[in-house]
Amino acid sequence: MDVIINGAGANLAEAMGCLKPGGWIVVVGSTAGSTVRTEVPDLYFGQYRFSGEPWKP
What we know:
alpha/beta
């Protein structure tokens, strides 16, 4: 996948496993919690980009 839009803030580590190198994860909420655990090498080897955006219905 090129882009994943996550409305709950959960399962970001699983989402990164679905992204192509250089893909985007956009987080628009945190109803599932505000803490994320992941391996740092997964971030830089995947060259992922993250964006946090406020929810705008």
